[in-house]
Specification:
Helix content: 25-40%
Strand order of the largest sheet: 1-2-4-3-5-6-9-10
Structural class: alpha/beta
Shape: globular
Number of strands: 10
CATH class of the domain at 8-131 and 210-285: Alpha Beta
Order of helices and strands: EEEHEHEHEHHHEEHEHEHH
CATH architecture of the domain at 8-131 and 210-285: 3-Layer(aba) Sandwich
Radius of gyration: 18 Å
Number of helices: 10
Distance between the termini: 25 Å
């Protein structure tokens, strides 16, 4: 695997935000990538490497995740939008495309709706809207693992390998989860994402209605949904009816179904599976420089 770019930081209102940058050719369009609810910037490693240098790609750790700071307060889509705009200013980006996965896609669609002149293209990887309330409530118990301490990196990787959602296990998943933990001074490891931060962002979902923002999204948009649910043919984040409604309510939205993957392996699996659809969409709607 190619070496990953170094982690760098932008500071915004006292919060350090971590990112990795894959440079583009002179004049290349910029893309900013936002991970899933508990995820980190490493989820975009293969996608970013494949899109660069035709595009200048930035993968960001949202506050409370990865190597970004974990403030006690300041969560919800408005705060993430402020962080994104501060990063874009630091990187000298007047306009950019957004690629978001799950919660990151929802944060991306929010920003595209409130700053339509800044966002040139939007890629929503099985996200972008509010899941049903019962789906959201079911997520709270799953974040408890973020407070767990594991005896070693090997123990953490063994637990992730045994999770049905992360199958088939491959080297891309191994690399992603290896970077997902921090070593503790007293021994052992724990996930980098803050359970308290994730819970606050889940809380915010209940006071937003992202579908109300869709008419304000003006840029070309791709909505990619995995063919598989988290339980095979069941357990999709969005039902077929909901997925069709998302694509219908955004004025310029193409929809694709990505075979042989689920909500997580859509991006985290080797390849990744979403790459052909993302590359084709960007080539048509946000052409790279030659």
């Amino acid at each position: 695997m190619p070496a990953l770019p170094p982690t760098q930081f932008v500071e915004h209102r006292g919060v350090r935000l971590a990112y990795q940058h894959w440079p583009g050719r002179p004049g290349a369009p910029a893309l900013i990538c936002l991970p899933h609810l508990t995820g980190h910037k490493g989820s975009f490693a293969d996608l970013s490497a494949a899109l660069s240098p035709a595009y200048a790609v930035y993968a960001l750790d949202l506050r409370g995740r990865g190597e970004s700071d974990r403030p006690a307060e300041g969560y919800g889509f408005a705060y993430h939008a402020g962080d994104l705009l501060a990063c874009a200013e630091a990187w000298g980006l007047e306009t950019f495309g957004l690629i978001g996965h799950s919660f990151g896609a929802t944060a991306a669609s929010y920003l595209a709706s409130i700053r339509p002149r800044r966002v040139r293209a939007l890629v929503l990887l099985d996200g972008g809207a509010d899941p049903q309330d019962d789906t959201l409530r079911a997520m709270y118990p799953t974040i408890s693992r973020l407070d767990q301490t594991y005896a070693s990196l090997e123990a953490y990787l063994a637990a992730m390998r045994a999770t049905p959602f992360f199958q088939p296990w491959d080297s891309a998943l191994e690399r992603y989860f290896t970077a997902d933990v921090v070593a503790l001074p007293e021994g052992g490891v724990r996930p980098r994402a803050s359970a308290a931060a994730v819970a606050r962002d889940l809380d915010a979902h209940f006071t937003y209605s992202l579908c109300l923002h869709f008419p304000a999204v003006r840029c070309p948009t791709l909505f990619a949904r995995p063919a598989l649910g988290l339980r095979g043919d069941r357990g999709h984040v969005f039902s077929e009816t909901e997925a069709a409604a998302i694509a219908r309510q955004i004025a310029d939205c193409a929809r694709v179904e990505v075979p042989t993957c689920n909500h997580y392996t859509l991006l985290l699996g080797g390849g990744p599976p979403c790459l052909p659809a993302v590359r084709a969409f960007l080539a048509a709607r946000l052409p790279a420089v030659s």
